[in-house]
Amino acid sequence: MNTNQKALSPESRAYAAAIFSTAPFIQELGIELVDIGAGRIESRLLILPKHLQQNGFVHAGVTATMADHSAGAAAGTLSAPGKKVLTVEFKINLLRPAIGQVLRCNAIVLKPGRTISFVESEVFAINEDTEKLIAKSSVTLAMVD
Amino acid sequence: MNTNQKALSPESRAYAAAIFSTAPFIQELGIELVDIGAGRIESRLLILPKHLQQNGFVHAGVTATMADHSAGAAAGTLSAPGKKVLTVEFKINLLRPAIGQVLRCNAIVLKPGRTISFVESEVFAINEDTEKLIAKSSVTLAMVD
Amino acid sequence: MNTNQKALSPESRAYAAAIFSTAPFIQELGIELVDIGAGRIESRLLILPKHLQQNGFVHAGVTATMADHSAGAAAGTLSAPGKKVLTVEFKINLLRPAIGQVLRCNAIVLKPGRTISFVESEVFAINEDTEKLIAKSSVTLAMVD
Amino acid sequence: MNTNQKALSPESRAYAAAIFSTAPFIQELGIELVDIGAGRIESRLLILPKHLQQNGFVHAGVTATMADHSAGAAAGTLSAPGKKVLTVEFKINLLRPAIGQVLRCNAIVLKPGRTISFVESEVFAINEDTEKLIAKSSVTLAMVD
């Protein structure tokens, strides 16, 4: 996967950034874009009480939103100009309860394609000084007109 | 699957209802519990601008949250007293863009278990007078102490 | 899903049948096509010792092969002439140990598409006089030239 | 994930090896165990005509069998003595058509557990002098008595 070594065009960078800045649900949750590369995205979320489920952990839906959205933007960095990226399906394995102050997500394109891309996202919870992998997601995306 | 014909104990009903009423993220999104049966949950969400992604569709993360949470509560109606239900993993296929005024979700336990349950959720978008299946999810849940 | 009511053209029937008859691995395993409809396939497998894993159950790989292949043929019944059907991804939940004399699979197209179709397969084990659902699979397929 | 640095007990090694040597379907296909470590397995398959599907590629069911079985053995290297490893579910993304002379699979435990483990498998096709990633799988396994 030499996607990371490829140069990222200003247009691709702008498109990926807009996927974050123009999505109301992402703004609502507070998921922030941290870094963009060719075929990769890093995002973060300051965990707030509103993000939790009934046992005090971050809701799987929050983690899934972060994994899916970051994957979409990662695919977007490699998509042809004018194409839109839409999620076809994703799976997420929740490996540990999500507890802490911050979630961090790395999304990396494993197989870019003209019509279908495959991306993996890892979500980590930062609790005090410890960072743990709490979820791994595999995402299939379609490039549409 | 004769789970639907089984009587639902008051304790199980209360536990499933609490999974909705005590989860801050579900309250935040506005996902409402509509109906509870033995091994099944119906929920709904009034679509608001905050739920959308960058192209004006409901964000896949909202749909996934609804599918996962409803699946958890459905499994909760059949879990032993004192057990908590946690999502191990889920997959969601997004079949059509989610456009409309309301999302409706049906979650049904396909295989209940003492330690692991398997649940399917279907999410429909209601747009004016038309209801369409927009997502199908398969969810694995663990029953933990 | 009114796919089942649609008439099945002779060409589509022939293409779906050929997906079974011309696949060496399916012949090798002994998976037989039982019935074809528009958007649906039924298949069966006589369980032999060679299909088992180390604990005496049918290997998950056999069950997955049956679920995936039947899904592909089901999508093939609805694909445009000249298109080939290829699996993009599938997930399978193994609900019970597969024990018995026969496996039976029903694959049904939930959402046909011009470029991507979504199909679900259920696999049942028939043991003496009892048939049990042992696996459920969700399959994404691409229609390619 | 420091699983790879942990020493592998003779019992664990023997159990993982037996998962390969005593599974009739794996012998039938010709999938060979190449290497065992703590939390990881490498396997290979010499591609034969019987492994193909209708278009001349290795059947997704073969690839899935290899990914699932290797994942099970990888989880088995870390399971408590006397426990059996069973697949709960797996998802596989098929990234490229599988063409070549040999398939190679690496399975690595991402999160070991007492009752549930999560493993990822990568499958590569070796064609002449080129090795390409053709599939990625995520596997949930249960440790049972």
How does this structure look, described?
- The structure is a homotetramer of 145-residue chains.
- With 145 residues, the first copy, chain A, is an alpha+beta fold.
- Helices cover 24% and strands 42% of the residues of chain A.
- Chain A is globular and about 45 Å long.
- The mean pLDDT of chain A is 94.
- Chains in contact: A-B, A-C, A-D, B-C, B-D, C-D.
- Chains A and B meet through helix 2, helix 3 and strand 3 of A and helix 2, helix 3 and strand 3 of B.
Helix content of chain A: 10-25%
Measured by residues with Cβ under 8 Å of the partner chain's Cβ, the largest interface is: A-B, 36 and 36 residues
Let me know the average pLDDT of chain A.
94
Widest beta sheet: strand line-up of chain A: 1-2-4-5-6-3
Structural class of chain A: alpha+beta
* Residue windows where pLDDT falls under 50 for at least 5 positions of chain A: none
Topology order of chain A in helix (H) and strand (E) letters: HHEEHEEEE
Calculate the terminal CA-CA distance of chain A, rounded to whole Å. 26 Å
How many DSSP E strands of chain A? 6
Strand content of chain A: 35-45%
